[in-house]
Each structure stands twice: as structure tokens, then as C-alpha cells.
């Protein structure tokens, strides 16, 4: 993702929440700067499992990790079992970014990555953050910038 003169590179590890990957999960999120926990809005059990993943990340991941909760399958909202308000309240209570998305239609997929990128510290990967990216600032076009 290109923001002003900073390029944010996302390395994506998808375990699909499968139990067989649970023991390997710390390897995936150790050192991670961001995590997206995804649940299916048509499946209450997947929302409960997502809450467990959030708890685990809160316990074991970096204390500064940017976490987002994504309610997927928004394209079939007429089949929902997890209400938007319920998930949004949970996200607010746990300081998570929250969006409903659709992998099928791409609804909010780019937006959730942009929201995460805006919250990530910029600077040395293992050092102190030097600032944050503010997407509300007007972009200045510069020669050689990554976003022309």
C-alpha cells in the first residue's frame, strides 16, 4: 500500500482459523505489526472463534500490534447470524478496527488494509516508531514518489 512517500508492504499469512494451525500460530504472529481476524457473518460459531483468536493475540502478540476484525460475507447479509452492532461493540470494547467485508465482491477489502496502514508506525522495523501515517493530510506529488 502506498501512502504519501511511504510504502507499506503486507506479508499475509492465512491459517483460515483451522485448528491444525493453532499450535503454529505464534510463529505467524510473532513480530507481526498487524493482524486481521476474520469471521463469517452467517456463522455465530466463527464469531466466537474469532473472539478466541483476538484474546490469544492480546495475550501473546506484540502489545503494539494493530488488530482488525473483519466480518466476511457481507454480500449475503440476508443470511447473517452475527449482527453488525454486536460485532462493532465487541471491536470497540477491544480497541479493534472493524469492517464488514466481502471476499466475493471485494467490498471493503482494500479499505481494511488502508485503515491498518494508517495506524501502523513508520520507521525502523524493530526500533522505536518515528511517527504515523496520516491519510487525512493532503498528498503532495513529488518526483520519484511511490504514488504518482
From TrEMBL:
CDD domains noted in UniProt: Rab5_related
Record's keyword terms, sorted: Nucleotide-binding
SUPFAM superfamilies in the record: P-loop containing nucleoside triphosphate hydrolases
Ranges of biased composition (kind: Polar residues): 133-148
Record carries keyword Disulfide bond: no
Gene3D superfamilies noted in UniProt: P-loop containing nucleotide triphosphate hydrolases
Region (Disordered): 127-148
Protein name: Rab-5
Amino acid at each position: 500500500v502506498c501512502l504519501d512517500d511511504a510504502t507499506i508492504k503486507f506479508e499475509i499469512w492465512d491459517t483460515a482459523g483451522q485448528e491444525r494451525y493453532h499450535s503454529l500460530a505464534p510463529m505467524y504472529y510473532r513480530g507481526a505489526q498487524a493482524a486481521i481476524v476474520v469471521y463469517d457473518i452467517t456463522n455465530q460459531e466463527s464469531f466466537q472463534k474469532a473472539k478466541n483468536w483476538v484474546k490469544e493475540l492480546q495475550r501473546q502478540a506484540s502489545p503494539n500490534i494493530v488488530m482488525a476484525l473483519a466480518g466476511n460475507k457481507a454480500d449475503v447479509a440476508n443470511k447473517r447470524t452475527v449482527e453488525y452492532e454486536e460485532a462493532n461493540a465487541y471491536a470497540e470494547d477491544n480497541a479493534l478496527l472493524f469492517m464488514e467485508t466481502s471476499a466475493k465482491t471485494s467490498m471493503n477489502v482494500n479499505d481494511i488494509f488502508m485503515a491498518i496502514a494508517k495506524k501502523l508506525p513508520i520507521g525502523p522495523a524493530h526500533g522505536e516508531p518515528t511517527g504515523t501515517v496520516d491519510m487525512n493530510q493532503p498528498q503532495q506529488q513529488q518526483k520519484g514518489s511511490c504514488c504518482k
